[in-house]
Amino acid sequence: MRATLNIPDDLMREVQQLSGEKSKTSAIVTAMEAFVRQKKTEDLLALKGKIQIDYDWEAEEEKELREQSPQRG
């Protein structure tokens, strides 16, 4: 998607420097991806203690290992 943005030069330089990206487009995309990842993480952490998950990971692991082992007979 093309867009025309008015981004302060000093902020653009800082984003490019911190992200290590040479192009402005790559720097903006990297910054936006990091922002989205951070917000999703915050949203998940906000659920801590609010939902109950009844999941027996050990049983699932055993089942997966049985399914992967070669059948002899």
Textual characterization of the structure:
By secondary structure, the protein is mainly α. It has one domain (9-68). It has three helices and no strands. Helix 1 (9-19) packs across helix 2 (24-46). The N and C termini lie far apart (58 Å). 1% of the residues are buried. The model has no long low-confidence stretch (mean pLDDT 91). It comes from Trichloromonas acetexigens. InterPro entries: VapB_antitoxin. This is DUF2191 domain-containing protein. Pfam families: VapB_antitoxin.
**Mind describing the biggest β-sheet?**
none
Count of alpha/pi helices: 3
Number of domains: 1
Whole-number mean pLDDT: 91
Provide the gyration radius in Å.
23 Å
Instruction: Report the β-strand fraction as a percent range.
Output: under 5%
Helicity range: 55-70%
Q: Would you identify the regions where 5 or more consecutive residues have pLDDT less than 50?
A: none
Strand pairing plus helix content: what structural class?
A: mainly alpha
Protein name: DUF2191 domain-containing protein
InterPro entries: VapB_antitoxin (IPR019239)
